[in-house]
């Protein structure tokens, strides 16, 4: 994706440095090839059951405060993902959440996030932590992305930053 002129590079670098200091994060890439408009954090595989091959966070923040924070898990050829967004659109309110396992407009729900992107990232990380705990709780009978149905199991944190 081409780099946008309104990218908040300073804020993204700050968020990337924050992520780089977390034990959950293996590596942070700033504006990598093919994803020049974002920071990509690969998460430490040891935090996940073996059924999850890899996971990552991708962060995009604009100068006007709009953002997209997306979480991905790769599972033996399948993907589980969700996305926290703040941007004008025709499908939901400016702030909305694209539910897992396959975020798309038809499955987005209205949300309300903190004003600061660093506070939104904390909400995202809380949801990721709950997701990891849920994965470990189901290691004997994992629910693959193709079998998953979203049912608000992570509470309101992903919607309201509570």
Strand tally is 7
Please write the string of helix (H) and strand (E) elements: HEEEEEEEHH
Summing up helix and strand content along with how strands pair, one would put the structural category as alpha+beta
Distance between the termini: 32 Å
Strand content: 25-35%
**How large is the count of helical segments?**
3
Kindly state the percentage of residues in helix: 10-25%
Compact summary:
With 162 residues, this protein is of the alpha+beta class.
How is this structure best described in words?
The protein has helices spanning 9-20, 117-137, 157-160, and strands at residues 25-30, 39-43, 54-61, 67-75, 78-86, 95-98, 108-110. With 162 residues, the chain is of the alpha+beta class. The protein has a 7-stranded antiparallel beta sheet with strand order 1-2-3-4-5-6-7, covered by helices on one side. Strand 3 (54-61) and strand 4 (67-75) form a beta hairpin. It is globular.
Characteristic key phrases:
162 residues; alpha+beta; seven-stranded antiparallel beta sheet; 23% helix
Structural topology:
Elements (H helix, E strand, L loop, with lengths): L8 H12 L4 E6 L8 E5 L10 E8 L5 E9 L2 E9 L8 E4 L9 E3 L6 H21 L19 H4 L2
Antiparallel strand pairs: 1-2, 2-3, 3-4, 4-5, 5-6, 6-7
